[in-house]
Amino acid sequence: MQGKPEIMPLLLLRGRTALWKEYSKKELSALSKRLRDRNFEKLYILDIDGIERNKPQLDIVQSLCNDFSISYEAGPRRGANVIDLVIAGADMVYMGTYCLESLDEIEVALSLCEGVGLKVDWNGGLLGRGVGVEGTSMPEVVRGAIRYGTKDMVTPVEIVNEVKDTIGSDEVVLRAIADRPGDEKRTDIDCASLIVDHELLMKEGRME
User: Fold this and answer.
1) What is the pLDDT of residue 18?
2) Angle at 188 between CA 205 and CA 94, to 5 degrees
3) In angstroms, rounded to a whole number, what is the distance separating the alpha carbons of residues 38 and 203?
4) Least C-beta-crowded within 10 Å: which of 33, 90, 118, 195?
5) CA 183/CA 186 separation, integer angstroms
């Protein structure tokens, strides 16, 4: 095992409308202070607007990137899409299988910047309709991403051990999202980082 995983807070952006904005500048500043007071230096932003509507909330990343090292999942469809996310302030951009037009877009993205990883989207099975994803098994997709140069992956806790076995080496950094009730309390997860909803961390007073 890699030892106790680093805890990384997750900020979920649930969706913005013309009449509703989830976080004001004041609220973002307060959130940043609470996390930094608990010694968190990294933040994983999961942007539903980007994933579902291809309209990432880049201003949120811009507001927080000076306080944290940002890992950003915003549903880029093509490799070239990662440029805007990096310019906004993301240190690591994750391309999810759910949104990818083709698995080889990862190779395109990595030719443009180093900070690109794969997010394995899963709901009882691999999610994704892109070329090289749809109709392909999870292990095949993981191995394919590695051939394209991926060195960093995020997966749900549910399948983290299976993904780790598929990777088969320590050359790829593996991170897990605690997306089921109770996953955030597990101590047997073999990965580099455990990504936990920031609201749970605040409620529990959990430190990094």
Assistant:
1) 54
2) 75
3) 12
4) 33
5) 5
One-letter amino acid at 112 equals L
> What are residue 154's DSSP bridge partners?
119, 175
Q: For residues 13 and 47, give the distance between their C-alpha atoms in angstroms, rounded to a whole number.
A: 5
pTM of the model: 0.93
* Helix (H), strand (E), coil (C) string for 65-84: CCCCEEEEECCCCCHHHHHH
Q: How many CB atoms lie within 10 A of CB 22?
A: 17
Taking the C-alpha atoms of residue 15 and residue 105, their distance in angstroms, rounded to an integer, is 26
Evaluate if residue 9 carries a pLDDT over 80: yes
Angle at 12 (CA atoms; ends 76, 68), nearest 5 degrees? 85
Q: List pLDDT tens digits, range 17-30.
A: 654 567 888 899 99
